[in-house]
Amino acid sequence: MMRLTEEADRISFLSELGYALDTDMTSIPETEIHEFVKRRSGLIRGAKKAALSKKAKRNWRHNRKAFMKGIKKFHSSTSGKRLHRQMGRFLAFRITSSGTKSSKMLRETLLKAVSSMRTHLYIENETYQSIQEQRDLGIMMDYVVPALLEIEQRWWQQSDGELLVEAHSVSLSDDEFEMLMCLTHPNAINSAFFEVGHSENYINVVQSTLQHCTMSENELSFLQAFKERLNNS
User: Fold this and answer.
1) For a surface tag, which of 2, 89, 102, 192 has the fewest beta carbons within 10 Å of its beta carbon?
2) Non-local CB neighbours of 202 within 8 Å, separated by 6+ positions
3) Model confidence at 8, in pLDDT bands (50, 70, 90)?
């Protein structure tokens, strides 16, 4: 069954299939739904190919502006989820950690947050949406899902059985850090930085830097731009 989260989605879905708007969803043959998914998949593949080349999909910093369309859709469907609170806490520690006991986190907490991001992306991708929304989500997922898998596997292997890990010592590139910042809901990031003792001005610099990076095609990473803005604030 196609996953429908709103009444407007149900109406649009029935219209695309050519059914009356008062049709009981359970009465639609599964074969018709499978055929719809098959047709839609072909359209999405073509739309993604036209929007972003295969080579470009592997470049986070050059295409982060395009990825944000799908990320905002992800935020709207996962707002308030535990994964955002867990990842927000890690990211806040990551920037400010000095190796103190308070910066330690359970390895499994981090792994579950990354794994949950992938799971909820899959759930969002099976939800009925417009072709443009599904294209934007697919473009983002083509980059993000493999990147999250790589992070998860690396953290598992490098922990060497250690259950408590230091936030600042976990292996993460600048682009991976920025990707996790973008995937984490802005409200969770604000709360996490506030909880570790940062001022409102500091948090504003975090958010303004992230917005600047994702709305322009500059080559600075979030961390590079953040340090510059923090020094000038």
Assistant:
1) 102
2) 193, 230
3) low
Of the two residues 140 and 102, the one the predictor is more confident about is 140
Range of the domain at 6: 1-51
Count other Cβ atoms within 10 Å, centred on residue 136. Answer: 23
Read off the pTM: 0.77
**Number of independent structural domains in the chain:** 2
Q: Which of 23-27, 96-100, 143-147, 197-201 shows the lowest per-residue confidence on average (mean pLDDT)?
A: 96-100
Query: What is the DSSP annotation of the chain?
Result: --B--SHHHHHHHHHHHT--TT--GGGS-HHHHHHHHHHHHHHHHHHHHHHS-TTGGG-HHHHHHHHHHHHHHHHHHHTT-HHHHHHHHHHHHHHH--S-GGGEEEHHHHHHHHHHHHHHHHHHHTB---HHHHHHHHHHHHHHHHHHHHHHHHHHHHHTT-SEEEGGGS---HHHHHHHHHHS-HHHHHHHHHHTT--HHHHHHHHHHHHHHHHS--S--HHHHHHHHHHH-
Is residue 71 located within the same domain as residue 184?
Answer: yes
Q: pLDDT tens across 26-47, in order?
A: 777 777 777 766 767 666 666 6
